[in-house]
Amino acid sequence: MADYFISEVKPTERTALAMVDRLLVAEGIKRDANLDYICAMYDDDYNVIATGSCFKNTLRCFAVSHDHQGEGLLNQIVTHLIEYQLGRGNLHLFLYTKTDSAKFFGDLGFYEISRVDGTLVFMENRRDGFTRYLEGLKKESGASFSENENPVGAVVMNANPFTNGHLYLVEKAAAECSVLHLFMVSEDASLVPFAVRKRLIMEGTAHLKNIIYHESGPYIISSATFPSYFLKDEAAVIGGHARLDIAVFTKIAAALGITRRYVGEEKSSVVTGLYNEIMAAELPKAGVSCVIIPRKEADGRAISASTVRTYLKSGELTALKGLVPETTYRFFTSPEAAPVLAAIRAAGEVVHY
Predict the structure, then answer these.
(1) Is the pLDDT of residue 147 over 90?
(2) Backbone angles phi, psi at 269, to 5 degrees
């Protein structure tokens, strides 16, 4: 044991990464595409015998060699990763794990937020983290809203950027609800930064007076932070993401009295289409209707943020008219948008499926 040591595995260390990958595969895991720190524990022959990784404030991709299980190596890997995260200022940590590993992480100071039975558990290192998040949402909503007559609705959107399609969805939902909770995905994993997305959403919907705006925080999970490494195929990843999102969202809905969740119809994206199917099937079990709104069209085609980003990338700004609200158009034709436009134009791919 004294000869074991833990070290960072850098992207250029191909031999070490290959050993990490072999260890993960042996445990039925594939290395996650979203990692910003990988560590490995080596024996005295420089074989990788345990590994773990981080992405932003999440811990992921754990594995221990079968030959060394029972030696407490995973405990050491997790301790190392926590120390690394604290060193870069991440105090509030999250992890996703298989259901049969949840007790182990509970013993290390992580608390369950929600789970998808038989698949995964979402955990954090704060006992009251999610409870405090729910209390914060209630405070943002105001005490009077708890007494509003139904329906109370919700929309969750990334809006990368905010389009007339997003506006149409919000207007339809707001017209049918006494109160509409609009959750803005605050994870900064999009070409349009969150500060800009939030501003354009709020400016574009300012005429609607029954909206309560919320930043999603870390609990409404984005596709970038959701783990795929221990789910066997793309359909399982999409299904796991959707079901975990639903499990968390139903707790939010119960706290805020939400009875409807509105989503946009999706015909072209397999991912979003499957996501919507699962929500439509699962949300009613928790007393929340899933209302799928047909997509708004322009010139016979559904308006999409991918199309808008394509025009932004090519510099065809006049083509945005009819696709985005005036507030969005005004921003992207102003000098203020220069850094965002530069990032979009530098991106290899701006169309998301």
Answers:
(1) no
(2) -100, 115
Q: Is 13 exposed, middle or buried (0-12, 13-18, 19+ CB in 10 A)?
A: middle
Judged by DSSP in three states, 350 sits in: coil
Of 76, 91, 106, the residue at which a domain comes to its end is: 91
The dihedral sign for the CA sequence 179, 180, 186, 192:
negative
The CATH number of whichever domain residue 54 belongs to comes to 3.40.630.30
Where does 88-163 have alpha helices with state H?
Answer: 102-107, 129-141
Residues 159 and 14 in one domain: no
Q: How confident is the model at residue 20 (pLDDT cuts 50, 70, 90)?
A: very high
CA 83 to the chain's CA centroid: 24
In the prediction, which pLDDT does 166 show? 97
Residue 105 within any structural domain of the chain:
no
Whether residue 257 is contained in a domain is answered as: yes
What is the residue range of 188's domain? 149-346
- Does residue 136 have a pLDDT over 90? yes
Q: Where a domain ends, among 91, 121, 136?
A: 91
Q: DSSP letters along 178-219, please?
A: SEEEEEE-----SSS-HHHHHHHHHHHTTT-TTEEEEE-TTT
Cα 310 to its chain centre, rounded Å, is: 23
73 plus 158 within the same structural domain: no
Closest by Cα among 164, 218, 209 to 188: 218
- Gap between the Cα atoms of 282 and 300, Å rounded: 32
In the chain, the number of structural domains is 2
End-to-end CA distance of the chain: 47
- What are the structure tokens assigned to 16, written together? 């070490």
Strand runs (DSSP E) across 35-110, as ranges? 37-42, 48-55, 58-64, 94-97
Q: Tell me: pLDDT of 224 over 60.
A: no
Whole-angstrom distance, CA of residue 138 vs CA of residue 256: 6
